[in-house]
Design a protein that fits this description.
By secondary structure, the protein is mainly α. The protein has nine helices and two strands, in the order αββαααααααα.
Length: 195
C-alpha cells in the first residue's frame, strides 16, 4: 500500500506543466519538490513512519491546480489561498491513500498533518512544517530572494524570522549544527535575523 500511494503521488506531481532545472536536467516542479521533501525527511527524521513519509511527499501535491492568482492579491487573499491549499493537498493525499487501500484512521492522520492542523500541538503537523521550512531554506530561499529585488533587508529579516518561528527546537538545532546547506549569499542576513 505504501509503495502504491507513493507511486500515485509521484504520478500526480509528474503532471506539473511547470519545470525546474536541477543538475542540468529539467523536472516537473512539484515532482522535484516532493523528492526534496522526502530526502530532507530522511536526513532530519530518519525513523519517520510510513504515514509521515506519505504526508511529507504529498505536501505540495498538484499545487499548480490552485494558483495564487485565484485569490485577491492582498494579505487576506494570501492567507485564504494558503488555507485553501492545505485542504486541497490534504484531500488529494487522502483520496490517493484510499485508492491504495489505507484505512480511515491512517487517512485522518495524514490529512491532519498535510492540512497543518494544530501546528505546535500535533507533532505530525509540526514535522511536515519543519521539513517544508528546511527545504525552503536549503533549496528555495535564494530563488525567492532573487525574485523579490524590491525587498529590503528589514523585510528579509522578517521573512527569515517568521520561517524560524514556524520550526521546532529540534529543527532549529538541525540547522544550527550544520545539517543543511545555507544559501551562501544570504548567510550573513540569516545570522543577523537569528541574533
Amino acid at each position: 500500500m505504501f509503495n502504491k500511494v507513493i507511486t500515485l503521488i509521484d504520478e500526480a506531481n509528474n503532471q506539473d506543466p511547470n519545470t525546474e532545472q536541477h543538475n542540468g536536467e529539467s523536472f516537473p516542479k512539484e515532482y522535484l519538490y516532493s523528492q526534496r521533501m522526502s530526502e530532507m525527511l530522511t536526513r532530519f527524521k530518519p525513523d519517520a513512519d510510513e504515514l509521515m513519509q506519505i504526508a511529507v511527499r504529498a505536501q505540495h501535491i498538484q499545487r499548480w491546480k490552485s494558483p495564487r492568482s485565484d485569490f485577491e492579491m492582498n494579505k487576506q487573499g494570501y492567507h485564504q489561498w494558503r488555507s485553501a491549499l492545505y485542504i486541497f493537498h490534504a484531500s488529494l493525499a487522502v483520496e490517493l491513500m484510499k485508492q491504495a487501500g489505507f484505512n480511515d484512521t491512517d487517512q485522518n492522520r495524514v490529512y491532519n498533518a498535510v492540512a497543518k492542523k494544530d501546528i505546535k500541538r500535533n507533532p505530525d503537523s509540526q514535522l511536515v512544517e519543519d521539513v517544508a521550512s528546511l527545504v525552503f531554506i536549503e533549496h528555495y530561499m535564494l530563488g525567492f530572494a532573487s525574485a523579490k529585488p524590491d525587498y529590503n533587508e528589514e523585510k528579509w529579516i522578517g521573512i527569515i524570522r517568521r520561517t524560524w518561528q514556524k520550526m521546532s527546537d529540534e529543527a532549529h538545532e538541525f540547522v544550527l549544527t550544520g545539517n543543511i546547506t545555507l544559501p551562501t549569499p544570504l548567510v550573513g542576513l540569516i545570522h543577523k535575523a537569528l541574533e
